Amino acid sequence: MCSKTISDCVEALIGAYFIGGGLTATLSLMKWLGMDVEFNPILIDDLIRNASLWSSMPKVNELETLETKLCYSFSAKSLCTPLRPIVEHI
C-alpha cells in the first residue's frame, strides 16, 4: 500500500472520530495512533463551550440590513453565520 493510501485512511479515521465522538475522541485517537498531541480534556470542553455557533452569529440588525439591500428574506437565518464580512462591504 502506498503512503498516500495510508494517509487517506488515517485522515478518514480521524474525520469519522471527529464526527462521531467530537474533538476529545479525535485527539484520543490521534494520540493512540502515535501522533504527538497533548491535550487537557477540561480545556477542550471549555473551548467548545466558548466557541459555540451563537457567538459567531450575525446580529439581527445586520441580517435585516442585508435582507433589505438584497430585497430578500432568509428563511434559515442560522445558516448566515459567515455573512458579517459581506454585510460590511455592501
UniProtKB/TrEMBL annotation:
Presence of keyword Membrane: yes
Gene Ontology molecular function, alphabetical: ribonuclease III activity
Keyword Transit peptide: no
Keyword list, A-Z: Hydrolase, Membrane, Transmembrane, Transmembrane helix
Residue ranges of the TM segments: 12-33
One GO-annotated biological process of the protein: RNA processing
Protein name, entry field: RNase III domain-containing protein
Species for this entry: Nelumbo nucifera
